[in-house]
Design brief:
With about 500 residues, the chain is α+β, with helices and mostly antiparallel strands. It has two domains: about 300 residues, Butyryl-CoA Dehydrogenase, subunit A, domain 2, CATH 2.40.110; about 180 residues, Butyryl-CoA Dehydrogenase, subunit A, domain 3, CATH 1.20.140.10. It is about 50% helix and about 15% strand. It is built from 20 helices and 14 strands. It binds flavin-adenine dinucleotide. The site of flavin-adenine dinucleotide has 22 residues, from strand 5, strand 7 and helix 17. One of its GO terms (molecular function) is oxidoreductase activity, acting on the CH-CH group of donors. Pfam families: HpaB, HpaB_N. It comes from Sphingobium cupriresistens LL01.
């Protein structure tokens, strides 16, 4: 669509790289170590604690989040049946996080892999939003082309071939800062509160604005920017989808804080709870960032924004099955601490573990059912059942909180009053603590310390972001699912079933 918005054109000119120039910066990645190496020396602008970070890969707060993504590469090598799939696009095996879903079975396998990754990392491993973006862009670019005669789908396929060959990570930038929630993008006092096209040139477009809360944004090689809500005619410059390398000129990352994140900078690893793995969210600012035409997948087709968001959320809300992997860790931690405390034989302890498991498996069942009930879209790929995906995510907004409450119950108050690792190591304080904080005689006190810290980490600390608050707001706050459930619940059809059985329908026909 040709329309130059004079109101928001800043006139900024960047190096207008071609798609080929951008891909030339990448080399195929296989192992986790190669992934970590690929993030070095990118020259990205990152702020954390009011300072520019020289090399994010080496920062103690950032590194655990990189380790979690690294695990997605290592799992593909260790367990290819689970974490890879055959790509028809490049006729080769690819990481399942980059696979285009060709069947309901692909979606089921995706869910199983997500649960496994949750078990292995105990955190948000940051690759699902990108995976679900890949799925939604396949069908939405196809549908836009059918309606508008554009060539977005071929651009998408060309991008995906490179993405799969290079085994890159794609981050999903959907959520805009949004400013005044009662106003539309074009009505905001500051036009940049929603990301928009700020300029069009012969070679491509420039985008300006920001994407908030982006999971693994800094750890991604590429970022997909997409509209966050339905758009109207006046919002057409906000109806933009583009693929941008994470090191593109004009991008600034501002790192999100997480509860207890500075523990990662302390000596020792016990008080960190989960020293190896963590999640990551960043504010990604796009200060007139150039995107070549080859990487523009929507530009002004505002009528497709709502359907794109709906399809993304259908995929992504079932992806919250990953929380069942974290739930498995919580059940294990609660059972272990009860064991260390000598309380494991009590019937109420067993009952609480049963309740935790019941809640966890309820989440799993809605996700896996959603995948089994997938249907084919006109572009040829499959999309899981939207109603069941919304039910899955709605369960996720609640059950991890109850599972955490039960884990905290079984852990006892020590999980929040335990002295530091340094006190345990101290010449005078250490022996006192080891005398008074012993549990079951044959269990080393350090095991107790570590397990309590893990429960703290996942329910109050860094990884409570991934287990709790992300469960609440990620892929949309609870009300967003209720709106979708309302839209899909077909209450009139159900009233018909009731009228039939109550003998009312016959009378209605008689009256007519
Ligand atoms: C840990 C985490 C990771 C995330 N990762 C990603 C990611 O990778 N990519 C991405 O794009 N996004 C991501 N998100 C963003 C997520 O999708 C949003 O948090 C979610 O959509 C809610 O938006 P918000 O945070 O701006 O909250 P708000 O929109 O401010 O919502 C707060 C409350 O206000 C209500 N509300 C909001 N607007 C209205 C309105 N107009 N009318 C009535 N009520 C309203 C909501 O229902 C909610 O109860 C992530 C979020 C979190 C917490």
């Amino acid at each position: 669509m040709e329309h130059i918005p004079d109101r928001i054109d800043t006139g900024v000119q960047r190096r207008e790289e071609s798609a080929a120039e951008r891909w030339a910066r990448f080399a195929p990645i296989t192992t986790g170590d190669e992934y970590v190496a690929s993030l070095r020396n990118r020259g990205v602008t990152v702020y954390l604690f009011g300072e520019l970070v020289a090399e994010p890969v080496d920062h103690p707060i950032i590194r655990p989040s990189i380790n979690a993504l690294k695990r997605t590469y290592d799992l593909a090598v260790e367990d290819p049946d689970l974490a890879t799939a055959h790509s028809l696009l490049i006729d080769a095996p690819v990481n399942r996080f980059l696979h285009i879903v060709g069947s309901p079975h692909d979606l089921v396998m995706k869910n199983r892999m997500q649960r496994r990754m949750g078990q292995l990392t105990g955190t948000c491993f940051q690759r699902c939003a990108g995976l679900d973006t890949i799925s939604v862009l396949h069908s939405i670019t196809y549908d836009i082309d059918q309606a508008h005669g554009t060539s977005y789908h071929q651009r998408y396929l060309d991008f995906m071939k490179e993405a799969q060959r290079n085994n890159i990570i794609l981050g999903a930038g959907m959520t805009d800062p949004k400013g005044d929630r009662s106003k539309r993008p074009s009505e905001q006092a500051d036009p940049d509160l929603f990301l928009h096209v700020s300029r069009r040139t012969e070679k491509g477009i420039y985008v300006r604005g920001a994407k908030a809360h982006m999971t693994g944004g800094l750890n991604s090689h590429w970022i997909a920017v997409m509209p966050t809500m339905n758009m109207g005619e006046k919002d057409r410059d906000y109806a933009v989808v583009g693929l941008v390398p994470g090191d593109a000129e004009g991008i600034t990352y501002i790192y999100g804080r997480q509860s207890c994140d500075t523990r990662a900078m302390e000596a020792g690893d016990i008080d960190k709870g989960n020293a190896q793995y963590g999640g990551q969210e960043v504010l990604v600012v796009f200060d007139d960032v150039f995107i070549p035409h080859a990487h523009v997948l929507m530009d002004g087709e505002y009528g497709f924004a709502q359907e794109m968001v709906a399809r993304f959320t259908a995929y992504h809300r079932a992806s919250y099955v990953c929380k069942t992997g974290l739930g498995d860790v919580m059940v294990g931690a609660a059972a272990a601490i009860a064991d260390y405390n000598g309380a494991d034989a009590a019937s109420h302890v067993k009952d609480k573990l049963v309740e935790m498991t019941h809640l966890n498996e309820t989440i799993f069942s809605s996700a896996i059912a959603s995948s089994h009930e997938a249907r084919q879209l006109p572009s040829g790929i499959f999309m899981n059942d939207a109603m069941l995906a919304n039910v899955c995510k709605h369960n996720v907004t609640r059950f991890p909180y109850e599972i955490s409450r039960l884990a905290q119950d079984l852990a006892g108050g020590l999980m929040v009053t335990l002295p530091s690792e340094q006190d345990f190591d101290h010449d005078v304080a250490g022996p006192i603590l080891k005398k008074y904080f012993q549990g079951r005689a044959n269990v080393p006190i350090e095991f107790r310390q570590r397990m309590l810290r893990l429960v703290e980490n996942m329910t109050l600390g860094r990884n409570a972001v991934g287990y709790l608050t992300e469960s609440l707001h990620g892929a949309g706050s609870p009300q967003a699912q209720r709106i979708q459930i309302l839209r899909g619940m077909e209450v009139e059809r159900k009233k018909g079933y009731a009228r039939d059985l109550a003998g009312i329908r016959q009378q209605e026909h008689g009256a007519a």
